[in-house]
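Extended Data, panel c. Modelled sequence:
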Amino acid sequence: MTEPLARVWWKPFPWKKWSPIVTPPEAHSVVVWVDDLGIAHARDGKTGRIIAEGGDHASVIQSAIDYLSDGGRVFIRKGVYSIASTVTVPDGVTLEGEMHANARYYDTRGTVLRGSADPIIKVTTEKDTYYSGAIAIRNLRVRPASNNAAILASASKPLSSLTIENVGVVPEQLFKGYGIVLDASQQPIIDVLIRRVECYYLDKAIWAKGVYQSGSSLYLYVTTLTISKCTFERNNTAIRLEGVQTALIGNSIIENSQTNGVEVYASRAVWIADNHFENNPYQSGTTGYDLIVQGEPSLNYYTSAVYVRNNLFASRYAAANVYVKYSARVVIAENLFLYTPQNNIYADADARYLWIENNIFSSQNTILGRRLVNSGKATFSGNGATTQFLIDHGIDGTPTTAVVTPGSSDAKGNFYITLDSTYIYVNYATPPPSGSNNVVLYWYARRGMEGL
């Protein structure tokens, strides 16, 4: 069976005429394709020798991968491949499909791997080194049949340098299966890039499981994870990080989840920046959140060093846009909270050292945790006799810095401020005049990080 012609592009010659140039299959180590009869074929990209062929598509793809004993690239041409057994991708191998231009998640004109294998693709390594050969999966559509996983990274040795990009995952059954699972519960997974991935209608679109427990100690086994420029739509949960250290979730769309958008659990050093959160959950009557930051109380482990910045939160039915529980040193800054759910930010009583600054809120927040920075607008009615007005600053302890600025003409005058652990006291030399809501004060308070 002859492989179909590769795609053609046009290149100008010096005399300005045009001539077709064919992409040589030798650009790839092994080429796999499926013919009109449903038979898959694999051939050596350099010699043209047929390596494997048959109706078992998974077996042919696996034979192509195993053929590359020292690593290389397997190029799977466009077509629908039935995967009844797991395809295992080891060190140094790139598995690359062929994408149709402007394809969406439901598009089947490119390379599609579909089936009941659990997982459909497994990434693994057995080398005795933290820096094994790079592994990449690109330009594929993967369709789990039910509760199976599309891509699973799990190894008997530490796995490093994994790239997954231009991959779309949508299951055959709604809200079933998993998109990308990083299972580091036994061995570390280091340096993972997930970019331009689309996941729809899954139970969990991305699930990083790096919690390793030894006695009363907890270790984080997923390290340096980047999730960038991805789209998550109509999943039960879009992203769940468990036991992750040093992660970035950025420039992604996370919307219409059944319950939660992003769950950060028992992790540290996580940046969540420049994302669009909307309709998580997508219907009223369901308890859900755009973002949950939570530690592990049973091990006295606080999720810590989480930075939430420059995100758009636009979920109407959320119990809170951001929910913080058993966590410490969480910075929530410069975000836009567009709508008024039950709460924009809800920090439970065991949240410690919150820093909430320069956000634009749609409503009042319920903050039960501790804050180092706070600001607001206070309005009082003068009676011509009162010279002292109290502003509840909500800071954890006595602020080290506070600024009060008059916001109305009746609030102007000679005054000074004093501070304690509860209030900013605004003390006027001469009482403001009588009036209804005529004393308006803008305020800012901050406590330094020293000693925390």
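Residues 57-67 form the longest helix (11 residues). This feature is highlighted in the accompanying rendering.
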